[in-house]
Design brief:
- By secondary structure, this protein is an alpha+beta fold.
- Helix 2 packs across helix 3 and helix 2 crosses helix 6.
């Protein structure tokens, strides 16, 4: 669930009313205490695109972040170390034929009555994102994968990128811990002028770009491809253009 502008005035949690500024302060505090790190990728100026081009851009962005997710899955197996969030009530994109397998641009969350984007990768409108455990992988490594995929998939539009920590996936704990759903909402809007003061306090978006394509990235890129405006892969086949 995303807030609308009208909902930004206050947040109601467990019968208490917390101002938007107070909840933003909770976000700032949890940048030290948070245990989950979320990255959001939002198409820049999508409202200025016509329906045809924004449809293609959304499919390309979801495809790219799905590739990033699969690359991180490969790295987990190789390093025997958890990187991507894995909670009991979430749904996931998988490398194999398990029940969580999906990779469709029109994918919907199979969990009924979910709240807080309990699916990975998550998407809403023209925003897509992934979540990792704190200190499991660096921002530099994520951005290296992003830049390689952006080049390989030929992403020809600009993307807003934000990242930050949150503390809980349980909405019932949201009155004292910073909740996933609110973190995603804030991060996906962090580029907007009314959030600029928060952005300046939590991230500078400076990273080192290393364009080396390692074996984990190669193996995923070899599985999936875009040719003649069609995405091909073992789990997907769909046209980018109508």
């Amino acid at each position: 669930m995303l807030f609308t502008k009208k909902m930004h005035l206050c947040i109601i949690l467990s019968g208490d009313i917390m101002s938007y500024d107070e909840y933003n302060n909770l976000f700032l505090k949890c940048q030290n205490d948070g245990i989950f790190e979320t990255f959001t990728f939002d198409i820049k100026n999508s409202k200025k695109m016509d329906n045809y081009n924004v449809s293609i851009a959304k499919k390309k962005l979801y495809f790219m972040i799905s590739m990033m997710y699969l690359i991180l899955r490969k790295k987990e197996i190789k390093l025997n170390n958890k990187i991507l969030i894995e909670e009991d009530d979430f749904s996931y994109l998988c490398l194999d034929n398990k029940k969580c397998e999906f990779l469709s641009p029109n994918m919907t969350n199979p969990i009924k009555n979910e709240f807080g984007f309990k699916i990975e990768p998550f998407k809403f409108g023209d925003m897509v994102g992934i979540t990792v455990y704190k200190n499991s992988i660096s921002v530099d490594d994520i951005m290296n994968i992003y830049n390689i995929l952006k080049k390989e998939i030929n992403i020809d539009f600009d993307i807003h990128i934000s990242y930050g920590y949150y503390e809980t996936n349980n909405y019932n704990e949201a009155n004292f811990k910073y909740f996933r759903g609110y973190a995603i909402e804030l991060l996906s809007n962090l580029h907007k002028p009314n959030h600029r003061d928060i952005k300046n306090k939590v991230q500078d978006n400076i990273y080192t770009f290393n364009d080396k394509i390692d074996n984990d990235i190669k193996s995923i890129l070899n599985m999936y491809s875009i040719k003649d405006d069609i995405i091909y892969g073992p789990k997907i086949y769909y046209k980018l253009k109508r």
